[in-house]
């Protein structure tokens, strides 16, 4: 079969023949409709992601929309290595039928980034009964923008959307979020901008898709001065690291504020938990609550897809 193939760490995929995946007895292979080129896909293929097994050659891709032998469209993924989802035929452990009205390529583009924030938000609501004020760091990327939409859909009291893209921030403001620009020179200016937002709308939940210097600025903004009793606990959840793999957490912040810093991703969230929530996320794509702009690339242009940048998500299609 034709597939995107990565032959080594850091290599750009090429379209070539690759052995067909091996189905279980009685299992029919699925036929690719579209596979999203997410940040995690690049990370796993390059060996930089903690989930990589560093075995090559491999077919990249963690999830996809595919067509069954009977013609149904399904969301699927978690193919057994070295097979991924950027191939003409897929063998996977689950199939979730797409709801009526859902654009299959938008689902392919948006399910992985959409689930990343959704899982944190629904877990928090189950834990404490409400979301309160949610601060999203990295709100103008696809994962962050979908998290803002999810927080609003799930009944957050207020959503603070922090990001760099002014046009995207304006769209989030129109949805009802409080926009905060992260386009500032230097850590002090960044911390000051976040501090203003924190004073205006103290968060009880932070979704951080950036980490690095942005997280350090957020920690500075959340810091307390004085000995008064602290406000309600802040749950700070690290989801992505587009701004850096490390961030220093001030000791005084941990002692002066009731703050809990955790992470969310494959490993800390089970596959079963993600699959249980996936139908609700797909339903929001079907009713246009969630949107995932995409650019489609055929398999023989997977190298161009790999280099794709901008406001849309690259989606690899069979032809």
Automatic annotation (TrEMBL):
What's the superkingdom here? Bacteria
- What InterPro entries does UniProt report for this protein, alphabetically? GroES-like_sf, NAD(P)-bd_dom_sf, Zn-ADH-like_protein
Instruction: Kindly give the SUPFAM superfamilies that the UniProt entry links to this protein.
Output: GroES-like, NAD(P)-binding Rossmann-fold domains
Q: Which Gene3D superfamilies match?
A: Medium-chain alcohol dehydrogenases, catalytic domain (3.90.180.10)
The protein here is known as Oxidoreductase
Q: Which organism is it from?
A: Streptomonospora nanhaiensis
* Taxon lineage: Bacteria, Bacillati, Actinomycetota, Actinomycetes, Streptosporangiales
């Amino acid at each position: 079969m034709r597939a995107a193939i990565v032959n080594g760490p850091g290599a750009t995929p090429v379209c070539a023949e690759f052995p067909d995946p091996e189905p279980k007895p009685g299992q029919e292979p699925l036929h690719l409709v579209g596979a999203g080129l997410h940040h995690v896909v690049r990370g796993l293929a390059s060996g930089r992601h903690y989930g990589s097994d560093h075995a090559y050659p491999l077919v990249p891709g963690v999830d996809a929309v595919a067509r069954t032998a009977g013609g149904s469209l399904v969301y699927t993924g978690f193919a057994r290595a070295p097979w991924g989802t950027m191939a003409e035929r897929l063998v996977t452990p689950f199939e979730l039928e797409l709801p009526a009205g859902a654009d299959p390529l938008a689902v392919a583009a948006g399910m992985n980034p959409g689930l990343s924030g959704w899982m944190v938000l629904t877990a928090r609501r189950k834990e404490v009964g409400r979301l309160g004020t949610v601060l999203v760091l990295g709100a103008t990327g696809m994962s962050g923008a979908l998290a803002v939409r999810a927080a609003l859909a799930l009944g957050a009291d207020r959503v603070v959307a922090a990001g760099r893209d002014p046009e995207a921030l304006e769209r989030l403001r129109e949805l009802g979020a409080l926009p905060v620009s992260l386009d500032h020179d230097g850590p002090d200016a960044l911390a000051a901008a976040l501090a203003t937002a924190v004073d205006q709308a103290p968060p009880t939940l932070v979704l951080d898709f950036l980490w690095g210097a942005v997280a350090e600025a957020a920690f500075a903004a959340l810091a307390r001065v004085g000995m008064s009793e602290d406000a309600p606990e802040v749950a700070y959840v690290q989801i992505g690291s587009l701004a850096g793999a490390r961030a220093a957490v001030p000791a005084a912040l941990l002692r002066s504020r009731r703050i809990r810093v955790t992470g969310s991703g494959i490993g800390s969230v089970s596959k079963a938990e993600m699959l249980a929530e996936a139908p609700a996320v797909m339903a929001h794509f079907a009713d246009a609550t969630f949107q995932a702009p995409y650019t489609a690339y055929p398999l023989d242009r997977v190298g161009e897809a790999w280099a794709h940048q901008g406001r849309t998500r690259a989606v690899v299609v069979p032809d």
